[in-house]
Amino acid sequence: MCVLLNELILSIENNSKCNLYKPFLFIEYDERNFHCWAYRYYLLERLCPSSSSELEGFYENELSFLRSTIGINLSNYSAWHYRSKYLDKLIDHNPSRRTSLLSSEWPLVLNAFYTDCSDQAAWFYAR
To answer: What are the helix (H) ranges across 30-76?
Structure first.
């Protein structure tokens, strides 16, 4: 695993995009592997668009991906954690959407509470 992550770091540094998909594939096979999630975040931060008009769509796409990942496994702490990071980034980017974004999060959190109230992932996210 370390060899693959090192290969990805080198591909970023060499500006090669051929190996950038690997952490995304690793998450499909082991969605709770926090190392892959951290590296995915690292990659996305470096590939993040610089134009303000594209940035909001970038954050929206990531939140959509994270919502679908949480829908597959409500216990995925990493998906909840990175969802909170990108939600904060989107709110910082467009503060006027704060109320609507937070209101739209509540049904997702409530669903997780009611599905398995003993699962702490959603409770930590809501906190």
So the answer is: 34-47, 52-72
